[in-house]
Amino acid sequence: MKLGKYSIGTGDRFSHQGQAQLRAIMHANKSGLDISPVWNKSNREHTYVHTVPQDTRNEADAAVAALGFKGKYFVDADHINLSNVAAFVDSSDFFTLDVASFIGKPSSESEVKAFVNSCHKYIGKLIIPGVKVPLLVTIELIEKVAGKFLAATQQAADIYNFLKKAKGEGNFITEVSMDEVETPQTPIELLFILKMLADKGVPAQTIAPKFTGRFNKGVDYKGDVDQFAKEFEEDVLVIDFAVKEFGLPAELKLSIHSGSDKFSIYPVMAAVIKKYDKGLHLKTAGTTWLEEVIGLAVAGGDGLEAAKYIYADSLNRSEELCGPYADVIEIDTTKLPTIEEVNSWSGEKYANTLRHIPGNPDYNANFRQLIHVAYKVAYEMGDKYIKMIEKHADVVGQCVEENIYDRHLKRLFNL
Ligand SMILES: [Zn+2]
Q1: Ligand 1 mean position to 208 CA, how many Å?
Q2: Would you say the C-alpha torsion 367, 369, 372, 377 has a positive or negative sign?
Q3: Average pLDDT of adjacent 10-residue blocks, the chain of 415 residues
Q4: Class (C level, CATH) for 6-285
Q5: Where are the domains of the chain?
Q6: What's the gap in Å between 206 CA and the centre of ligand 1?
Q7: What's the predicted TM-score (pTM) here?
Q8: Residue 84: C-alpha distances to residues 95, 131, 203, 410 (Å)
Q9: DSSP label at 407?
Q10: How far away, in angstroms, is 325 Cα from ligand 1 center?
Q11: Distance, CA 324 to ligand 1 centroid (Å)?
């Protein structure tokens, strides 16, 4: 099973927007692109909204059937590990092996030694075609990288081998993710991580490193765009080298766990993949849930009331809701409107505040991040919320589609 050159991961907390998400991708594909949709949902997300992996599969299959989509599509068990992968075996065909928590765990001296020995030919000035300055590789550096990543890549191999046995070789896509950590992996680290994966027989088709900068949920990139550009380009070149040198799958490409809406680095990524004619996998997680709330606000009446209730409850419980996301959000609480203020808003004002159009004077990134992490509130509304998004399915679906097409795919593929 092979992932296409371009793929977009979309998340859907409440499993109602599969068709709207697919419409956006089909719209882009009309321009001659062949983007594969990947519906991703992590174990954490399933736990919060009490869904099961099969729900995501059902949603994807139903959307594809309803719209007569003929391309490849996948269901991603996002950020899984050995303790929870089993529940995803039947319903997923794309697995994101999250090994971030194994970075820096010790490996045996003999393993480190064996890895260092296997890298002798790279010591000195290593030329990666396209990278301007040769990489300076020393024994100390290889030892350090081995100490940092051998256990993590071994963990990837353990999860992969479990899946190989459960699903059969070649019947699923393997992604390895290390993005949920503080420190970015450098291109030279990525090179040796890929060697480790190749040595251990993990046929990764996508790899998600931690990039420089902050990837806060649902808002734009925060960091040095030039530094990101340099790193991203070097990563692409390192992957190209690693595929040939270590015999990894020719499809291997970067996976960007964007946390959604990293608009300022989209042009950078677009330019690099175009320059080298490379593929890309982009995960855009919680954006769809925000579009549901925007849609409800735009719908007005009971929809707007529900959107206002969601904000009020989110603000009252902000500590509880933000807690699990503390590392990936930055909310300036002094810039959050009061409940009374929001209750006086029109649907348009509410939507403009939440919708990610940075130039709009009403846009408020603090408001947006709070709602982003507040989907538990909607979950607790239960049937009332579901009935609301079903009642206003047209306007909500339009918001979801427009968001993915206009604000994401257009920027990423120069449409
Ligand atoms: Zn991630």
Answers
A1: 7
A2: negative
A3: 96 96 98 97 91 97 98 97 97 98 96 97 97 95 97 98 98 96 95 98 98 93 96 98 97 94 95 96 90 98 98 97 91 98 98 96 97 95 97 98 96 92
A4: alpha beta
A5: 6-285, 290-403
A6: 12
A7: 0.96
A8: 12, 39, 21, 36
A9: I
A10: 12
A11: 14
